[in-house]
Every structure is written in structure tokens, then in C-alpha cells.
Amino acid sequence: MQLKSLIRVFAMVASAGVLALSASGTAAQQYPKDIAKLYEAAKKEGKVVWYEAAPLEPMQALTKRFNARYPGIAVQLLRITGPQQYARFMQETEAKQHIADLLFLSDQPLMQDLIKRNHIAEWKVPTHDRIPEAFRAGSFAYSPYTTDIAIVYNTNKVTAEEVKILESSWKGVLDPRFKGRFAVVKRKCGACYAGVHMFTDPKLANEYGVKFLRDVAAQKPLVYSDNPIALDRIIAGERDFVFWLWEALAVTKWQQGAPVRWIRPTPTPEWGNSWNAVSKYAPHPNAARLLQIWLTSDEGAIALQDVYGSSTTLRGVPDTRKVTKEAWYKPIKQRYDMDWDRWGKNYELDMNLWQSIQDSAIR
Amino acid sequence: MRRVISGNVGDSAPELSTAAAAVKAPLRVAGETVLWLVLALFVFAIAVVPLLYTIDTAFLKETAFGLTQERSLEAVLNVYTTSRYLQMLGSALLLAVLVTTLALTMGVLMAFLIGRTDLPASGTLDVVVIMPMFLSPFTGLIAWMVLGSERTGLINVALIAVLAKLGITSEPWINVWTYSGVVWVMSLFYVPYAYLFTVNNLRAMDGSLEEAARINGATTLQAVMKITLPIMLPGIFAAGLLIFVLSAETYTIPGIVGSTAGFTTLPWQIYADSTVAPLHRAHAAAAGTMLLWVTVGGIVLQRRMTRVAERFVTIGGKGWRNKPIPLGRWRWPAFGLVALYILCAVGLPLSALAVFSFMKYSSTIFTIDLFTTKHYFDLWGLANTREALGNTLMLGLMSGAVCVLIGGLISYVELRRKTRLAAIVAFIGVLPVAVPGIVYGIGLLWTYLRTPIYGTIWILLLAYLAKFTPYAIVVSRTGILQINRELEECARTCGASALQALRKITMPILKPTLIAIFFFVMLQSIKELSASALLASERGPVLSVLTWSYMESGNFQFAAAVGLLQSLIMVGLLLLTRLVFRIKLERASGH
User: Fold this and answer.
1) What average pLDDT does range A187-192 have in this prediction?
2) Which of B368, B549, B562 to mutate: most A Cβ within 10 Å?
3) Cβ <8 Å between B553 and A222
4) Same domain, A210 and A287
């Protein structure tokens, strides 16, 4: 008997031999296409469990909007960041412990893998054709909002003249006047990699490449362990700007009145970082589908813009965000599209390299 | 004054009691066998199986998407033989040594000043000095981020402004985003452990020994160094081991600050391997076993020291009242020293947290617009916060109660029956303390994934029982050692069964120790984050995970409000313990 099997037997003894034989409910099933009927079925289920990777507060506000439209369905949120969520969902699926109804993964390759493993329900939302191809994975998963990278700065610390230098090009950060005045983030995550992915693009090797990342480190930035900490410290005034975060993270603080703005030099990485999909084994399949439909609807798109602050991927929806009416706000001029093959292949190597370069900035 | 039960531990029982015990033998054997089996099964379920799973995980093959069922030595070899992981282990151990040394020095010094000298207001200081225990480490870090950041820390901002008014230009005075900053913040929060573990030994110590030394010409300092300190050594070692283990497995403070200061400790790497893409959970498990071996060594050493402690404790086991050592002209400077610690560990962090929790965002420019009561309204308004509050309280109370029961019984069976198997159960029961919570959490998750308790709050209860039963075993063990077994033998001679003797004699005498364990475990359970973060589900949120989620989401101000609520609950429970049980934690937990 292998050790793993032996341990499993012990575990079963330890838990009084009770096995969870939960019904998977995975048999082929038809779901109402009519929203009213779907809502009725969802109400009977009474709840939906949403594993999500976004900040908790805006997601709670979002679920309130959903409940205002569809009362009687309790949305239970569990915030788990991408890789942990993937691992947890896989473990639960293998053990037939089906808990999650809807998944929200930030990492596109992880979602693709779940689709490949046949763990995601194929469910074409009514607005399918209004969502650009880059923001959908077949009829399995949809990214209802975009994510970008941006230089986020403290308005009390960076002058108008300096803003111009920074927005002229990503290389603006190398201006000697910025030495020791900004921060970078040493963490592995999708948004953390997006910049590295663009700067190490072989097509942009002459302009950026690894040398550019080394030059950034030579500017002696302060290194923070995570994005929210960096944002908090920039707002406090510990450093003047952070090279780079993303708009949605900063916009929440801007809405609260914090002295913070952001600029996005050209080209700007912009991609889907919010992959929502219904689990094939969802214990509340109707409620999960209803929530997915609402998230990708016009009403859901506006709610996402209002509470999360990121721009919607749904075509034909006006950008209702207050920040876009500000004189200083500039939309993305030219989008940089991710090369997902290169992303998958190089992610770890590139991030390890960037982290070691950041370490050199501290020494 | 605490009761000290005198007598020589290990004395053979009188013949009469042996005869009486023989009469009751069939009943006793059956009862004890059942008890022993229950304890062994408990230890097996919460300690052995998850630990085996953890070790097993270290031998699995990793892919870009997680673990496979294929076997591989890659993770173990990488962790045990490459300089990268060994250096991180070295960093964690060095940090733990520095934190332990500083916390012990401060804690023991304050225990001596408060417990043995004529320090002013020692009764009040006795309570206030343990207050940092009511802050979780990462809530403490938020407080020190607000206080001690280089350019925006309130201490630097205030000092620079005051000096500027005096015409003096000054550079920032402190910066917590450095290695010494980590040592400082962690030490502040571990001082109460050193204090609690030593202050009662000092109070219970026979002062006539020091007096005899002084009569024979020794100065006060010489008496302390030659008499007090050697007698204190086992207690100091136990406190040191606890602080060392806790600081060696802490990942939040060293990880968050270490990224800025330029160092990585093993627990932070374990956290990264367990949570960040691509996951390296086999590496995390292998690295967790490294810390396991280090702590196993410490536990073995501690058990040897405790054996020595028995001899020390029983030297003069009768009650006495020590005369406080006069500090003379050092009385007020010593008071200032203790007050300074209280200011740094309690006053400043709690004030900073309170102010911060009313702010919309971080700032050093204080205007009326900056402040809001929203976070506190949200605390009560959000369903998951209310639910988390209820779950946290319930789990804290339950884990405290069960750990007392199980830990006390394991120690009792080990010390009173002295069989090899009982000793093994007691030793194994202590092991989970050595494994970082997040790694242990993975083992527990694998163990109970296929059972109905997965995804409920009961898996959190199991995690807390596993993590904190070791403390209950260690503390109750030394408590039981102080009780002469002749008392139980007398009861047995008078016709009581073994369980009756335990219930009527041993338990009442142990009551202060047991309540202290209950309270300590409850506090630790309320603060526990690393295993909780992995095991908590949407059905059972707890406050520590919620605070961490808000902190990870960038809402530090709301996290501060939740952290403060958590602290208030702990202080409330402390007061309740005093009122209901009439037990003072700071006077009951030393051994």
C-alpha cells in the first residue's frame, strides 16, 4: 500500500469513517434561456457561492447591486487570489466537494487550463457577441472588465512638468530627477507581470528589454512586497509614485478623495484579468448562470464601472466612471496585446529575473 | 498568592495506597485505557495524519498548475541542498534568535522589576505590560507602518516638526522598513510571552536564598546573577522556545518588510510557494519540514530542562511572602524603562490604530475631510463581518476549552502513569507547533478534504486544536509537576477512584493554570491567520482572515478597524475571565 493510500485510510478512521458523498449534480441539464424563468429557478436554489480574486469591498458593493435586481439569492463571496483559487477548486473537484458555483480567476492561463480539463460549464451569455474576443474564452469564460498598467502618483509630490515627462514614454522614469523618488512592487501576479511581459517583448527589445528593467532598478526605487501596500504608501507620501500599478486599484482611492492620479504611457498593456466562469459542478447552477448573465449585461457593466472603477469590456456601454470626466484623465491611446503563449512559457523565468533585478536596487 | 504544592515529585506511593489501588485495578485499567485511546486517537487525527500528509506532499511532482500524483525528489533536494533555501532558513533562524534574545531580555527584566522589586504602580503595570498580546502581529505591523515609516511615520513627522520649530533641521529618526525595524516590532509583541512565563516563577521563588547570599557579602546584582537567574533558567528557556518558534514561523512582518529591506525568510518563501503563481506546494511542504526538525530539537531540549526544573521548583515548596527588593535611586528610572516599553508596545500602536481606523486613506496632513466613521458602520453593516465576529468568538471559546481538556489529560496521563506510550503521545502532540500554520493547513486540508467537515468552521477548530494543544500540553505538564502525587494517593487510599482523585484533588489545584491555558489558547485562536487563510470558507469567515483580506485588498483603514475590534474582544474576554473565574491571567500562567 502506498503511503498516500495508507494516510487516506487513517484519515478516514480519524474522521469516524464518514465520507462526504455529496451529489455532484453534473448530469446534463437544460437551463432556462428566459431570464425570468432562470431567476425563478435561481430563487429556488437560494444562494450562489462565488470564489473571487478581486478586492473584497467593491465586490460586496457589486453583490448588493445584483441583489437589488434579483432579491432572494444570497451571494456568498470567498476572496481567494488566482493560483490559490485554482488549487482549491482543483482539490475540491478531485475530492467531489463541489462548493463553488462561479469562479473569478485573474490569471488567464489558469482559466484556460480549467476549461481544458473540462471543469467549466459551457454557457453562452446573451451579450456574448458584444464582448471582444480577447475578453472571452470560447463560450466558457468572460472577462467583464479590463485591466491595464499605470504609473500612479501622489499629486502633492509630482509636479505638472514631471507628469509630462512620465507620460511621454515608459522611459520617462529614467530621468535623473526621479532617482530614489519612486517605488516598485516585488510580487508575482498577473498585473505585476504585464509590464515585464511588454518590456521583455522581443519586438520591443531595442527600446526596452532587460536593460530597461536594470536601468529602472539603477534609479534606486523603494521595493514593496505588494501592490496595495505600495499604493497606500504612495498616497501617504512615502515615495512620489509607483512604477506600475493598475487603474482600478487607484480609482477606488481617488474616489475617496486621496491625492492620487495615474498616467498610462504608450503602448499600454490592457487585457482581461477577471475571468468569470460557471463551474461545471456548480451546486447552484441556475443562480450561477444568472449572476454570470448579470455581470455581462449592460446593468452589470455599469455597476462594475461604478463600484470597481475599471472600464467594461462590453461594447456599446458608455464609460460612466466619474474619473473619466476629469481634465487630467487620458484614455489609453494604444493598447499593447498580450502574447499568451509567451506569457505561459516565460512568466516564472521573467518574474524571477525582475525580482532579482529589484533586489539589486536594494543593495 | 498562588498556591505552591510542596513535596518531592517522583516519591514512591505508600504501600497502603498501592494496595488500595490494586483493589480498584480492573475499573481503573478499563477507564484509563479508554481515556488513553481517546487521547491517542485525538493526537493521531489532528497531529499525525496532517503531518504525514505534509511530509508526503514534499515528495510530489510539481507542474505549472500544481501538484501531480507522481513522485519526485526535486522539491526536497531543492530545499535541503540549495543555498537559496538554506540561506532563507538561516535568515529566519537568525531573526528568531535576535527577536528571542531581545524579547527575553526585555520581558525578564520587566518581570524582575514588577515581580520582585518595589517598582511604583507594579499592580497596574502587571496588567498593562501584557496588553500587546491582544494585538495580532499584522495589526501591529499596520500600527508601526503608520508610526515608523521613514518619511510619513507619525513619530518622524512629529519629531522633525518639533525640531524645526526650534530651528534644528533633522533627518528621519526611525524607519521600520529595515531589518532592525522587523526585529524591533516583533520583539515588542513577544515581550509579554517572556514576561508571563517568568514573572510568577520570580514571585514564587524563595527570597531567603537571595537574602542568604546578600548576608554572605554578595551585592544585589551578584545575588540576582548567582541565585535568581540560575533558578529562573528553565522558565526563561521555556519562554525562549515559545518565542523562538512563534517568530521563526511568522511570515507577515518579516515578509512584508523584508521585501523592502532586502531579505527573505523561509516562512515568507513558504507563503509565496503556497499562494503565488506558479504554486510550489511541494517546496512549501519540504521547507516546512525544515522548521519541524529545528523545533523538534528545541522541544527535546526543553523537556530535558523541565526535568531539571522539577528539582528547582521543589527545593523550597512551602508558601512564603517575599520582601520586595528595594531599588533605591533606580526606582524611578526603572519605572521609566517599563513605561517606555508600554508606550512603544501599547500606547503608540493602539493610538495610531485608533486614529488610522477613522481615516479614509493614509495621510500626514490631518484635515476634517480625511476622517470618516464609515469603517465602523461597515463593521456592523456587513453580514460577513457580523458572522466572522460570531465564528471567531465561538471558535476561540471552543478551542480554549478543548485544548485545556485534552492538553491537561495528555500531560496527566504522561506524568502520572509514566508509560512509554503515554510519553510518545505527549511528544507527538507537541509536534504541530513546529510546522508553519500554512504548511500544516495544507496537510489538514488534504486530510479532511473528503470528509463533511471540509468547508465548515469545524476544520478551523481542528486546526486550532492541533496548533495550540502543544501549548496546553507544555504548560499543564509543568503545572502538574508542581503537585505532589501523594495528595492523589491519599484520596485513593480513602476510597476515591483515579478519576475522582483527578477531579476532586488535581483539577481544583490546577484550576489557575488551566484557566490561563484556556485564555492563552483562546487569544491565539482569535489571532491565528496562516492556517485559517487556507482553510476558511464562505460558510465560516473569521476575523483574522477578514482583516487580512481587507489588508490585501488595500483597505488598511478598514483592516485597522477590524483589528481593533479583534483586540477589544480579547480584552473583553480577559475582563470576563477575571470577573467570572476571579483569575488574573498575569498571575496564573507562569510555571
Assistant:
1) 88
2) B549
3) no
4) no
C-alpha cell at A186: 516585488
**Residue B33 grid coordinates:** 485505557
Give kind and range of the element (H or E) at residue A51.
Answer: strand A47-52
The answer for residues whose C-beta is within 8 angstroms of residue B91's C-beta and 6 or more apart is B254, B263, B264, B265, B266
Average of per-residue pLDDT across B422-429 = 84
Q: Are residues A225 and A299 in the same domain?
A: no
CB contact (8 A) between residue B553 and residue A57: yes
- More reliable by pLDDT, A56 or B460: B460
Which tens digit of pLDDT belongs to each residue from B386-414?
888 889 999 999 999 999 999 988 888 88
pLDDT tops 90 at residue B174: yes
Lowest mean pLDDT among B278-282, B422-426, B481-485: B481-485
How would you label B342-352 residue by residue, b for 16+ Cβ within 10 Å and e otherwise? Answer: bebbbebbbeb
Nearest to A83 among B276, B452, B454 (CB): B276
* Set of chain B residues whose Cβ sits within 8 Å of the Cβ of A239: 151
Q: Which of B56, B69, B277 sits opposite A188 (nearest CB)?
A: B277
Nearest-5° Cα angle at B198, B193 to B199 = 100
* Cβ <8 Å between A253 and B363: no
Q: Which of B549, B274, B521, B235 is nearest to B399 (CA)?
A: B521
Per-residue model confidence as pLDDT tens digits over B487-520: 777 887 888 877 788 788 888 888 877 887 888 8
A47 CB neighbours in chain B (<8 A) are none
Q: How far apart are the first and last CA of chain A?
A: 51
Q: Which domain holds residue A177?
A: 148-271+333-362
Beta bridge partners of A147: A271
pLDDT for A20 equals 35
In the block, cell 476558511 appears at B536
pLDDT in tens, B61-111: 998 778 888 999 999 999 999 999 999 999 999 999 999 999 999 999 999
Q: What is the pLDDT of residue B529?
A: 85
Percent of chain B with pLDDT over 90: 32
What structural domains and CATH numbers belong to chain B? 1-47+369-591 (1.10.3720.10), 58-356 (1.10.3720.10)
The nearest alpha carbon in chain A to B550 belongs to A56
Closest B-chain CA to A239 = B151
pLDDT surpasses 70 at A3: no
Handedness of CA A319, A321, A327, A330 (dihedral sign): negative
Give the pairing type, strands A102-105 and A74-79: unpaired
Instruction: Please answer yes or no on whether A14 and B44 come within 8 Å at the CB atom.
Output: yes
Chain B residues inside the 8 Å CB shell of A82: 277
Place of cell 521563526: B248
- Listed residue (A101, A143, A145, A142) closest to A119, CA to CA: A101
Give the domain CATH number at A293.
Answer: 3.40.190.10
